């Protein structure tokens, strides 16, 4: 059984026990502190900060938990998450998940080239297609905690792929994203980042 399948089964099993029970209105009130970086509705104006709108609530909660316990490193987010209770995280996750992420715009040339890599992967390097976990439109799979990646800032997507490739970021299930990113060239990452940002 390959690593991708093992990770899928493990995450799907875990997700059946952990389901966010957040309150959207409470999350909206609590999000005031987050708005400076992520925008009032989770559509951040700056590509330094990820868009959160429309992201799956369980995934958002997981990231906040990992910032709090140190499994995912970011000085600002570790500080912000340190004061959040589990209920706070669930409320915030529910609020952002209830909103809609605004897609980016890219050229037709990027769409054509990016679609091939995203949909088919790289057979010569035994890299699975991105669709295997994130779906053809980049909506991910909530039950398995595979995140929505469509419409995200391309610079943010690029930065995360580079961090997975360098193993600066190691919090994907069973290290699957580290394996995938290791097979991507700089040009691949640039292309995928732009293509994914326009999916919706």
Automatic annotation (TrEMBL):
Residues 1-20 form the signal peptide. InterPro entries: Cyt_c-like_dom (IPR009056), Cyt_c-like_dom_sf (IPR036909), Cyt_C_IC (IPR008168), Cytochrome_c4-like (IPR024167), Cytochrome_c_Oxidase_Subunit (IPR050597). Heme c 1 binds at residues 34, 37-38, 77. Heme c 2 binds at residues 130, 133-134, 177. Residues 22-100, 109-200 form the Cytochrome c domain. It is found in: Periplasm. GO terms for molecular function: electron transfer activity; heme binding; iron ion binding. GO terms for cellular component: periplasmic space. Keywords: Electron transport, Heme, Iron, Metal-binding, Periplasm, Signal, Transport. It comes from the Bacteria. Binds 2 heme c groups covalently per subunit. This is Cytochrome c, class I. The lineage of its organism: Bacteria, Pseudomonadati, Pseudomonadota, Gammaproteobacteria, Alteromonadales.
């Amino acid at each position: 059984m390959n690593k991708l399948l093992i990770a899928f089964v493990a995450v799907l099993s875990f997700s059946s026990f952990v389901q966010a029970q957040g309150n959207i209105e409470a999350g909206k009130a609590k999000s005031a502190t987050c708005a400076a970086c992520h925008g009032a509705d989770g559509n951040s104006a700056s590509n330094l900060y990820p868009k959160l709108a429309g992201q799956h609530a369980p995934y958002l909660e997981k990231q906040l938990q990992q910032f709090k316990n140190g499994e995912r490193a970011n000085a600002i987010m570790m500080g912000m998450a340190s004061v959040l209770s589990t209920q706070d995280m669930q409320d915030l996750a529910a609020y952002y998940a209830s909103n809609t992420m605004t897609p980016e715009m890219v050229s037709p040339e990027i769409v054509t080239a990016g679609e091939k890599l995203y949909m088919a992967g790289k057979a010569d390097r035994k890299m699975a297609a991105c669709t295997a976990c994130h779906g053809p439109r980049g909506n991910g799979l909530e039950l398995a905690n595979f995140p929505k990646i469509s419409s995200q800032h391309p610079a943010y997507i690029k930065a995360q792929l580079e961090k997975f490739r360098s193993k600066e970021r190691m919090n994907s299930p069973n290290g699957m994203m580290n394996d995938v990113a290791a097979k991507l060239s700089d040009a691949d990452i640039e292309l995928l980042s732009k293509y994914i940002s326009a999916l919706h």
